[in-house]
Amino acid sequence: MTFNLRIELEYDFVEQPLDITIQLNDNNLFSGMLDTNMFEFICDSHPACTLKIYMHNKPIIGTLVDDCGNIVKDTFIKIKQVEIDRRYLKAAVIDCGKTVYYTGEVHPKNNYISQNGYYELAFTMPINQFLQNYYDSFDSYKLQGLDEELAEVNNLLNKMDSKNNF
Amino acid sequence: MKSVYIVNIPQYDADTVPLGPAILQKVAKDCGYKTYFSDLNLELDVNAKNQDFKARTIWSSTLTGHLPYSTVKYLIKLIDNIIDKAILVNSDFVAISFFSFVSLPYGKLFLKRLQTKKYKGKTIIGGPGISRNLEIAQQWLDNKLTDYYVTGDGEIAFEKILCDKLPYPGVNNPNSIAIGDMNSLYFPDFEHFDLDLYPKMFGQRTLGIEGSRGCVRDCGFCDIKVLFLKYRYKSGQRLFDEIMYNIKQYGVYVYWFTDSLVNGNQKEFRTMLRLLSEYNKNVDEHKKVKWTGQYIIRPQKQYIDEDFQLLVDSGCLTLATGIESYSEKVRRELGKNFSNDDINWFFHKCQKYGISLFILMVVGYPTETHKDFEESLRFFDDFEHLSDDKTISGVQLGNTMNMIPGTPVWRDRHNLEIEYDYFEAIKHVNSWKNKNSDLKIRVRRRLLAQKYAIERGWGTIIRSTAQNLDMFKRWAHDL
User: Fold this and answer.
1) Residues B181/B157, Cβ–Cβ less than 8 Å
2) Which ipTM value was assigned to this complex?
3) CB distance from A67 to chain B under 8 Å?
4) Which residue of A has its CA nearest to B450?
5) Which of B51, B156, B347, B382 is the most exposed place for a label (fewest CB within 10 A)?
6) Contacts of B451 in chain A (CB under 8 A)
C-alpha cells in the first residue's frame, strides 16, 4: 500500500540557499538544495509514520536585524501544509508537530524551523482515521452519539419497511 | 411617549441575531416611539436545544397535530410573559415578525392570547411568513385577530402605520412595493437585544447583516422571488460602512450575511471584499472582520484570479452553498446551471485557500427518480476527503422537499403531476406526491442518505439530525 504525500513549504535565507533533507520513517525522500516550495512523493504506507524535515546549513549570521531589533530577513523553513491522499492536515501540522534543534531544544506544536535541526510530524494511517481522532478532540466534531444516531436511523427505516414495502 | 413592543415569533434555527426586528426598531425610534423587544424564537430554540422535553416537542411538531395540553400550556406561559410586559409598559403597538410559514401557528396563538388578555393597543404582523400567506393574513384581519398586516419590504409600511399615514401599498393589501434603493435603508438598531444570548461564531458576538434582497436565480423549490419580487443589493461601500458602524457601535467583528446569496452582484461583492481586505490588513488580529454567508457556485470561467484570495483576506471563513443534488440532471431541472466539474473545482479551491464549506441539499425534488437519488449519493464518496479534513464542515440534508405555494415548481405542478395525500399531523407542503416519490419515499431516501453519509465518516458533518429525526418519528405515525 502506498499513499500520496504533498508538502508545501515557505522559506527564505540570508546568505546561501538552504540544504535540506525530507525523511519518512528515517528513509530519505529528498536531500539537496531547496529551490521549490512544493514537494510530492508516493510513499509506502505504515501504521505509524514519522515525517522529518531537516534544515542543515543556517549560518551563525542567518538573520538580519535592523537597529531597532526588528528582523529584516531570516533564514527559516515554515511547513505551511501537509497533504496526504488529498486530505489537508491544516492545524494538525502545528498541533501534532514539533521542532527539534541540534542544540537539543524541543519546541512542541511548532511548524517553523528557525535553527539547524528538524521539524517532526507523527501520524498514523489510514489518514482519515488519524484526522477523525484529531478532530474528535474538538467539541464540534466529537463522535459521541453517532452510533445511537445510526441505530435510530436504522430503526426508523425498519419501522417504515415493516409497514409497507416501498 | 408612545411605544412599540416588537416580538420575534418561532420557529427557525436562531443562528444569529434577527435583523427584521432590529430594522423595525430603528424605524420606530425615528418615528418618535420608545421600543421594547422580546425574542420568543430564541427562548424556545435554546430550551429545545437544552433538551427541555416540552420545548423540544413543540419544536419538532412545529405546533401542528395534536399536542398534549400541558405541552401547549408551556408555550402559552412563555407567550403570556411577553404579553404581560407589553401590557405593563402600556405599549401602543405590538409588532410581530414572522420568519416563515412555520411561524403561522405560533403567531396565531400569540394573537389569540393578546385578545384573551385584553391587550388594548394595536397589533401589526409582517415578515416573510406573512408575505407568503396573504390569505391567512387577510383572514386574521377580517376576524379582528390583527389590526394591520404588512406584505413585502416592511420599512416604509411600518413607518406609515406608526405615523398614521395610511393607506399605503402593502398594508392590509397585497400590493407591496419593493424598495429599489437598498443603499437608502437604515442601519439596524440592536438596542434591547442581548447579543450575548445568541449563537456566537468563533467564540465572538455575531451580528446578521443584509447585503441584498431577492436572488439572481429562480430555483424550482425556492419562493424568494415571490417574497422579494426582484433582486436588489447594497453597494460594496454601503455594506462596508454598515460593518464599520456596527464595530463602532456594538464592538462586533463577526458577521453573518442573511442574503440568499452574497455574490449575486459580482462587482459590488468584490468591492466589499477589497475594502474589508484593506481594513483587515491594517488592524490587530482581534479586530479583524470575519464573516460567513450563503454563496452561489458559478461556472469556473466567471472567476478571476484574485477571487479566492480576496475571500480569505476579507475574513471569509465559511460559505454556505446550495448544491441541492449531486445529480447534474436534477440540478439542471431545479435551475442551477453549474456542473459537477464546477463543484469539484470550486471545492478544491476552497480547500487550498482554507475556506470551509457548509453544503445545503434537498432530498426528493419532484423530478428526482430513485436512480437520480442514488447518483446524488456519490457526493459522499467523491468528497469524503474534504469531509475528513473539514473543508466541508457541514451538510444540511433538511426535512425533504417542501412544495411551497408560489415557487416555480408549484406553478408547474400540473405538468409534474403533483397530487396530495392527507395526513393529519403533516403539513400540506410536505405531503405532495407524483410518479417519482411520495412522502414515505422521500423520508426513506432522506434516511438512507444520512445512513450512507454516516457510514462513510460524514457523521459529525451532517447537521440538525436530532431535530430532523424527531420530525420523521412524528411523521412515521401517519406514514
Assistant:
1) no
2) 0.91
3) no
4) A153
5) B51
6) 150, 153-154, 157
